[in-house]
Amino acid sequence: MHQNTQPEAYQSYPAIAPEKYKGKLDGQVAIVTGTSAGTGVPIAKALAAAGASVVCVARREPAIKSLVEEIKAAGGKAIAVAEDVASKGAAQRIVKQAESAFGPVDILINNAGISRIGPVAEEPDDVDLWWRVHEVNVRAPVALTRAVLPGMIERKKGYVISISSGVLYMALPCMSAYSSSKAAITKFHEALAIELQGTGVYSFTSTPGVVKTELGAPTDAINKNAMEHPGMKAFLGMMNNPNAFKPQDADVLANLTVAMVVDDCFKSLNGKFINGSKDATAIMEEAKKEGAGRIGSEDMYTVRMHQL
């Protein structure tokens, strides 16, 4: 989600404090996409701080090279891989470079994402720009997941996490491409988790809440016109109201991501949609109970359709 004003942000909390996980990922290899800006940067840093060797992937090479230097300066291990994740063969190239540099991939974080803001009726006839959102937000994560799964299954360990969004359960004007893509990747992980039962490989989606990023910024006439749509104005007004949605520091999602691949309690949440916009302490405590407590008995954190 994109926000123009930034009141005091919701901060991280003790249950996912970085110092708890220092060294817990030593010897593990993580791929993080979308690391040139936004949530991908703190996620890459947090994984490196926990000991993982991090493959930083994005199109903007100068930005990811700068991130890699920052990680190395802090004593971490990282390489930069400049790729458009949606391009043909990108998944195989990324995994090959990761394995060449560090070894088999243990963690995949599908963070790269784009948005398309505009009424469907105003899209060009070929709707290529609309579909581009699904190429980046759905097809690329699925391709990367497919590229790392055989090795993870063979070694009986691994984590695949895609960054989703709370918009998947909202009806938002002018954001049909983005919201439908996030719904699609979330349901993909639910199904994948069932397929992976007993393999030692775990699958999740998570949402960062209201974090200020470049995502959704108007870039062309259709996007700019969409910002004047009454429904979009109402939505942005709501998002800019701190009483309705409190903004969140991107480090919260980064720390939660590390917790999800280190803390065994999250294994009982396999396939779930983890809401990173709220303190996960209660979730973690409930997940430790037999059958994941209320989470299991009430099928919580699963996107589903309510019926009569």
Output the strand order for the largest sheet.
3-2-1-4-5-6-7
Shape: globular
Percentage beta strand: 5-15%
Largest sheet: 7 strands, parallel
Would you identify the regions where 5 or more consecutive residues have pLDDT less than 50? 1-9, 215-222
Number of strands: 7
Question: How many helix segments?
Answer: 10
CA-atom Rg in angstroms: 19 Å
Question: Approximately how much helix is present in the residues?
Answer: 40-55%
Q: What's the helix-strand series? A: EHEHEHEHEHEHHHEHH
- Helix/strand class: alpha/beta
Question: What's the end-to-end separation, in Å?
Answer: 32 Å
The overall average pLDDT, rounded, is: 86
Give a verbal description of the structure.
There is one protein chain. With 308 residues, this protein is an alpha/beta fold. It is built from 10 helices and 7 strands. The protein has a 7-stranded parallel beta sheet, with helices on both faces. Helix 1 (40-49) crosses helix 8 and helix 3 (90-101) runs parallel beside helix 4 (128-155). The longest helix has 28 residues, at 128-155. The model is unreliable at 1-9 and 215-222 (pLDDT under 50).
